[in-house]
Specification:
single chain, alpha+beta, Rieske Iron-sulfur Protein, three-stranded antiparallel β-sheet, 21% helix, 26% strand, metal-binding, oxidoreductase
């Protein structure tokens, strides 16, 4: 930069053409880096097809007592089970201290539109927590396992009718996805109720 003497006798610096070229080059360089970096950063966002599966609504009005519905959420099966009064009583009667992954039946439920728990409906991700197989459910057959719940045929994990691990190599209970009751007959899976 060159130094000029102002009218009042003070020294002032004026940019030269060389300074302007350096500043302009740096600006274009930063803009170029931003143009190339944006796609690399943007690729970390979820794709549109994944975002479309972020939440799903499930109509449970046609479920009958003792039936299970399987929905697909984010590429995973989700079990929605309409439990019988006997199944609910059995789940409540379990000694929680005897469980590997200690959760009461009520801790695995969410409140309905009226604010009360709906123990007749159990919603779980249908993937075994051991190695990711899909457990089978048949409480009236040995395919349901020893605890009248789900049985993973891959490595022999037994879950009770609340989705809690009772026997086998699985380390955790079946996962409860985020969900809430839009109405008495419709669940929204993938989102929790807003306060």
């Amino acid at each position: 930069m060159s130094t000029l003497v102002g009218n009042d006798g003070s020294d002032t610096e004026q940019p030269t053409r060389r300074d302007f070229i350096h500043i302009a080059s740096a600006g274009f360089g930063l803009a170029g880096v931003a143009v190339y970096a944006w796609p690399l950063i943007d690729q970390m966002n979820p794709s549109a097809d994944t975002m479309s599966l972020a939440t799903i609504e499930v109509d449970i009005s046609n479920l009958e007592v003792g039936q299970q519905l399987v929905a697909k959420w984010q590429g995973k099966p989700v079990f929605v089970r309409y439990r019988t009064d006997v199944e609910i009583a059995e789940a409540d009667a379990v000694d929680v201290s005897s469980l590997r992954d200690k959760q009461t039946d009520d801790e695995r439920l969410v409140p309905g539109p009226d604010g009360k728990l709906k123990p007749q409906y159990l919603v779980t991700v249908g993937i075994c927590t051991h190695l990711g197989c899909v457990p089978l459910f048949d409480p009236n057959d040995e395919r349901g396992g020893e605890y009248k719940g789900w049985f993973c045929p891959c490595h022999g994990s037994h879950y009770d009718n609340s989705g809690r691990i009772r026997k086998g190599p699985a380390p955790k209970n079946l996962v409860i996805p985020p969900y809430w009751y839009v109405s008495d007959n419709v669940l929204e899976i993938g989102k929790e109720a807003s306060a």
